[in-house]
Amino acid sequence: MNTRLLAPTLCALLAASAAGQVRLPAILGDGMVLQAGEPARLWGWAEVDERVALRGDWMDDDVHAVADHDGRWSCRLPTPAPGGPHTITIRGAYAPDAPIVLDDVLFGEVWICSGQSNMEWQLAFIDDAAAEIAAADLPDVRLFDVAKAVAMEPADDCEGVWRRCDPGTAGSFSAVAAIYGRQLHEALDVPIGLISTCWGGTSIEAWTSAETLRDFDEFAAPLARMQRAADGDDHEPSLAQRQSAWWDRLERTDPGMTGHWMGAQLDVSAWEVAALPGTWAALGLGDFDGCVWYRRRIELPDDWAGREVVLELGPIDDMDMTFWDGQPIGGMREDGRWTTPRRYSIPPELATAGHHIVAVCAVDTGGTGSVGLPAGPMQLSWWDDDSRDDDGSAPATLPLEGLWSYRRGASADDLGPWPRESWFHQHMPSALFNGMIAPLLPLRAAGFIWYQGEANRPRAARYRALFPALIRDWRNHWNQGALPFYYVQIAPYGYRSDSGEAAELREAQTLALAEPNTGMAVTMDIGNPRDIHPTDKRPVGERLARWALARTYGRDDLACSGPMYAGLDVVGTEARLSFEHGGGLALSNSAPAAFTVAGPDRVFHPASSRIDGETVVVWSERVAEPVSVRYGWGAADQGTLINGAGLPAPSFRTDDWPLVSAAR
Question: How far apart are CA 431 and CA 423, in angstroms?
Answer without folding.
Answer: 12
